[in-house]
C-alpha cells in the first residue's frame, strides 16, 4: 500500500471525470417531428360530437 501515493490519485480521478463528461455528450436529442394532419382526427372529433349530440337528444326526447 505504500507504493500508491496520494499524488497518483488526482490524475486518475481527473481522467475518470473526463471520461464521464465525454460520455454525457454522446448523443444529441432528436428534433421533434413536424406535425402532419390528414384530417382523420378532425373527422373523428366531429363524429364524436355528433354522437354525443344524438345521445343527448335521444335522452331528452325519451
TrEMBL record:
It holds the Pfam family AGP. This is Putative arabinogalactan peptide, AGP. The chain crosses the membrane at residues 42-61. It comes from the Eukaryota. The keyword Ribonucleoprotein does not apply. Residues 1-26 form the signal peptide. Keywords: Membrane, Signal, Transmembrane, Transmembrane helix. It comes from Rosa chinensis (China rose).
Amino acid at each position: 500500500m505504500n507504493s500508491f501515493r496520494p499524488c497518483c490519485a488526482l490524475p486518475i480521478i481527473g481522467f475518470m471525470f473526463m471520461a464521464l463528461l465525454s460520455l454525457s455528450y454522446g448523443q444529441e436529442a432528436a428534433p421533434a417531428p413536424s406535425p402532419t394532419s390528414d384530417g382523420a382526427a378532425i373527422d373523428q372529433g366531429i363524429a364524436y360530437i355528433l354522437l354525443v349530440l344524438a345521445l343527448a337528444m335521444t335522452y331528452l326526447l325519451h
